[in-house]
Fold this protein.
Amino acid sequence: MTTKLEALELALRTALGEGAAITVALGEVTVVVKAAGYIAAMQTLRDHPALKFEQLLDLCGVDYSTYGEGSWDGARFAAVSHLLSIEHNWRVRVRVFAEDDDTPVLPSVVELWRSVNWYEREAFDLYGILFEGHNDLRRILTDYGFIGHPFRKDFPMSGYVEMRYDPEQKRVIYQAVTIEPREIIPRVIREETYGMNPGSKNLG
């Protein structure tokens, strides 16, 4: 008897052919496609009658530079989408890797699912992945003058610049991050009788 997961895997292999690598693990199906065939594969996933993934629920960026404790030797940046078919009541994960690690570029699927608009902007903002064909690709979570992409594995925890109000200039300014040495372990100072009822004796 064919399970629902096996039916989905078969439908995906039939519709996408050899242009996609399909794996099944932990009750989930993942499809990996190349950047050159990304748009065609996504359109097939949406329009093929045996698949009908009408909704794109999410898209996020991934930085694989430290994956597997540094043993990863593939492309660094990927976009991962989660699709839902209401008609068939099944889900699929789609992963596509950008070919250039220095300037990661992927095609935008905003023409297929309008819901991906803000998700692609988020992946651009946090990971620096450029989505070619996106009509409004600008930062969505960080400030307009923000430098770098904070979810990249090599982005410093303290950032590159800090913002503060300068009372002399009477305006907000940006400057290089300065971290003064400080004690991060709290000191707890209590009286010897802390927590004891008034009049009680210390039995210790």
